[in-house]
Amino acid sequence: MKVMIRRSDKGLSAYVPKKDLEEPIVFVERETLWGGEVKLKNGWVLVLPEMPDDTRLPITVNAKKLGSED
């Protein structure tokens, strides 16, 4: 699914245009963000693609949602 990752004063967040959903990222598996899992405040777990550590935000990526499909 397409997900836009961005950073604000409040931290990282993810926006899913297809669901018109924006949620804060509350857990990051890897310090560099890319190639690992992130957990959103609503409980969704997304697997982000491998990207260079210095990838600039905001960026839209194809992420995989783990668990049940909504």
TrEMBL record:
Underlying gene: nifT
Listed NCBIfam families: nifT_nitrog
Species per Swiss-Prot/TrEMBL record: Hartmannibacter diazotrophicus
One Pfam entry name: NifT
Any one Gene Ontology BP term: nitrogen fixation
Name recorded for this polypeptide: Nitrogen fixation protein NifT
